[in-house]
Each structure stands twice: as C-alpha cells, then as structure tokens.
Design a protein that fits this description.
CATH class of the largest domain: Mainly Alpha
Oligomer: single chain
Number of strands: 0
Number of helices: 9
CATH architecture of the largest domain: Orthogonal Bundle
Helix content: 40-55%
Largest sheet: none
Order of helices and strands: HHHHHHHHH
Structural class: mainly alpha
Radius of gyration: 22 Å
Low-confidence stretches: 202-213
Shape: elongated
CATH superfamily of the largest domain: Cytochrome c-like domain
CATH topology of the largest domain: Cytochrome Bc1 Complex, Chain D, domain 2
Length: 229
C-alpha cells in the first residue's frame, strides 16, 4: 500500500514538473519567438546619450585614441564593451536590473520594469538579479554625473562612505584617468534607462544640492589623488 502511494506521488511529481516546464518555458517561447529583438546598431541609431558626448569632451585625447569621434558606431562599440565588462566583472551579483512592484522599489529606483525594454541584445544574458547589495541600475542613466561614476569606480567610499563595493582601479590609466574599459562601462551604465521619457531623471527632478555637493567633493578628492599618484 505504501509503495503504491509513493509511486503515485512520484508520477504526480514528474507530471507537475513537466506541466510547469510547458507553462513557464515552452508557451512563452511559442508566443514570443517571432518578436523582433532590437540590435545594437538600432539602439545606437536612436541617439547617443549626453554622457557619451561628455566623456569625449572631458577626455578628448584618450577618447579619440579609444573610440575616435563620438558617433553612432563608436557609441555602439563602447556599449558593447561596457556590457561585456559589466557581465564579466559580475556587477549583476550586487546590482539587479529589474524593478519589481513590491517594497516601494519604484519610489527608490523609478518605474516598474516592463517587458519591451528588455527586448534588445544588450539585455542578454538576463541581468534581473535577486540581490540588493547595491541599488537597482535599470534606471541609472544620468541620475549621476560622469564625474561621480569616475570617482565611484576609482574609490567607492569617496562618494558612498558605507559602500562595500571594491575599487576598480584597473578601469584607469596610471595617471588616474579612465581608460578604455572605464569609459566603456560608464557609457553602458549611463545608457541604462535612457529610453525613459523622463530621462535624464526618472522622477523629473534634477540633482539635489546634496548630490551636487557630493559630486564636487568627489571630484576634488579624485583630482588630489591623481596629482599625488
């Protein structure tokens, strides 16, 4: 009798597993398999972000060496490299890219994520993430300046004293200025959320005086570090 019940539960378990696979995998694949995925060239054709042009203006010689002029092609090149670095460095382990309709996430990081914004090749592999060690980055575009990100990658505690993020000094040349990898990952992060109508600030507001002060202080510390290195 016991063996008979065990057999029934075993068969039922396999049955529910197969049903779940069909419902959660095969059906969505069937529905969306013919949907067109936006290519990187199409993303770049929509227009460069202000921050990419800003990098060209702030670091003209290095930018020209790494990317040439700020064009659609160079923007696409920087985005692709930045995305590859972001994935390779495991940034998604601590920074998700999916705002959920729970726990007031939209108050912290902007509108709840929607399906169509993930329908492009820069969203592969899926970087939804599950942890919140750092803020969600899908709405990060232009919420902070390029200078802030430069300082943050060089020494995170300069701009976020409680940060547990490691320093990424290999994103910089020996003189302390961002190299090809540094400019690329900043370009990628500053692109995330740039498709929002509220861009550059998801809530329609500019930086607060405190944010501006933090950015200026970070710039001063970075310049001092560069001059003494």
């Amino acid at each position: 009798m016991f063996e008979s019940k065990s057999g029934i539960f075993l068969v039922a378990g396999f049955g529910f597993f197969i049903l779940a696979f069909i419902v959660m995998a095969l059906i969505p694949i069937t529905i969306y398999s013919d949907e067109k995925e936006q290519t990187l060239a199409e993303i770049a054709a929509e227009g460069m972000t202000h921050e990419f042009v800003d990098l060209a203006e702030r670091y003209p010689e290095r930018f020209k060496e790494y990317f040439g002029a700020p064009t659609e092609d160079s923007f696409a090149t920087a985005l692709r490299r930045g995305h590859k670095i972001y994935v390779g460095e495991g940034c998604w382990h601590c920074h998700s890219q999916f705002i959920r309709p729970i726990s007031n996430e939209e108050q912290r990081w902007g509108p709840v994520s929607y399906a169509s914004e993930y329908q492009n090749e820069l969203q592969r592999p899926v970087l939804f993430g599950t942890r919140r060690v750092g803020p969600d980055l899908i709405r990060e575009a232009a919420r902070r300046s390029n200078d802030w990100h430069v300082a943050h990658f060089y020494e995170p505690k300069w701009v976020v004293p409680t940060s547990v993020m490691p320093s990424y000094k290999w994103f910089f040349d020996e003189d302390g200025y961002p190299n090809r990898d540094g400019m690329s990952i900043i370009t990628y992060i500053q692109w995330l959320g740039s498709w929002q109508p509220e861009y550059p600030y998801w809530d329609g507001r500019g930086p607060t005086p405190a944010m501006v002060a933090d950015d200026e202080a970070a710039d001063d510390r970075h310049d001092e570090e560069v001059s003494t290195s």
